[in-house]
Amino acid sequence: MSKSLDFEVPVVKLREKIQELKEIAKNADVDMSTEIETLETRLQQLETKIYTNMEPWDRVQVARHAQRPTTLDYINEIFSDFIELHGDRSFGDDEAIIGGIASFNGQPITIIGHQRGKTTKENIRRNFGMPHPEGYRKALRLMKQAEKFKRPIICFIDTKGAYPGKAAEERGQSEAIAKNLFEMAGLKVPVISVVIGEGGSGGALALGVANRIFMLENSTYSVISPEGAASILWKDATLAKQAAEAMKITAYDLKAMNIIDGIVIEVAGGAHRDVQAQANELKECIHNALTELTILSETELINDRYDKFRKIGEFIEEEVEVKVDGKVDVEVEVN
């Protein structure tokens, strides 16, 4: 059993016990404040111990938590005067991607993000946060609109990946994602992307070509899910935990490789424990990034974005001796 499943049991039982004591104290008019305070202290200590010693697979589980804050949760907490805009002006409106105009500290901005549900009914409506091509085309339409009116763009990434169904492929899923990558690279306004949950494959990258990329501490960002990687590499999806460790998909791994620009620390117990407090942390991060980027010219913004992605990854040049027609020659080999 995964450690992430093991540690939920004592934490959940402790929370239930605290709630039970609060109900007893309320209904029986008995002073149990000392007992409740003792248990709450124990709970805080337990959560701190758990959430400061997490393995990659544990972070995957937290990123997938059913009550983890979504794009709409952060929009409601961070921004004001949000107006949602719909449709790609070509096929329809994809509710797996939400976008519109809002105000951030008095500044007009465009917000675009993946949106998944917290209940079965809402997840079906949102297609579990997996966009169709029209979702990415809607996102691109809003990005080009933001560029026209010189509004900064804030993207929230939270998807297992683009929807892989037959209808999505027939309507040009790959082309829609590729066009987003191409167009985002040349946007003349600041672009900030934040991975708030799962950042899976091209479905996430289609909102990820940004000047600054941040990740919540317990989010993930990868080319494929751990289960998918395990199925391909070892023909066994149950080895997802080992795959998560090998893939380097956590915020700390990606920051160490300079793929992302910063990590937004989560509240004790995960972002779902206190949405408002988590939103305040994220708001400060966005404010600092916008302050840094809004002073750049259009050309500087494009060059900044280009340089960021150009520097991702490393290569080493080595001189090697090779024989050609019996003669020794020197070639440069790139690894």
From TrEMBL:
CoA carboxyltransferase C-terminal domain span: 38-292
Keyword annotations: ATP-binding, Coiled coil, Cytoplasm, Fatty acid biosynthesis, Fatty acid metabolism, Lipid biosynthesis, Lipid metabolism, Nucleotide-binding, Transferase
Localization per record: Cytoplasm
Record has Cytoplasm as a keyword: yes
Main localization category: cytoplasm
Alphabetical GO biological process terms: fatty acid biosynthetic process; malonyl-CoA biosynthetic process
SUPFAM superfamilies: ClpP/crotonase (SSF52096)
Pathway assignment: Lipid metabolism; malonyl-CoA biosynthesis; malonyl-CoA from acetyl-CoA: step 1/1
Any one Gene Ontology cellular component term annotated for this protein: acetyl-CoA carboxylase complex
Reaction(s) this enzyme catalyzes, per UniProt: N(6)-carboxybiotinyl-L-lysyl-[protein] + acetyl-CoA = N(6)-biotinyl-L-lysyl-[protein] + malonyl-CoA
UniProt-listed Enzyme Commission number(s): 2.1.3.15
Gene Ontology molecular function: acetyl-CoA carboxylase activity; ATP binding; carboxyl- or carbamoyltransferase activity
Subunit structure: Acetyl-CoA carboxylase is a heterohexamer composed of biotin carboxyl carrier protein (AccB), biotin carboxylase (AccC) and two subunits each of ACCase subunit alpha (AccA) and ACCase subunit beta (AccD).
Task performed by this protein: Component of the acetyl coenzyme A carboxylase (ACC) complex. First, biotin carboxylase catalyzes the carboxylation of biotin on its carrier protein (BCCP) and then the CO(2) group is transferred by the carboxyltransferase to acetyl-CoA to form malonyl-CoA.
This protein's name: Acetyl-coenzyme A carboxylase carboxyl transferase subunit alpha
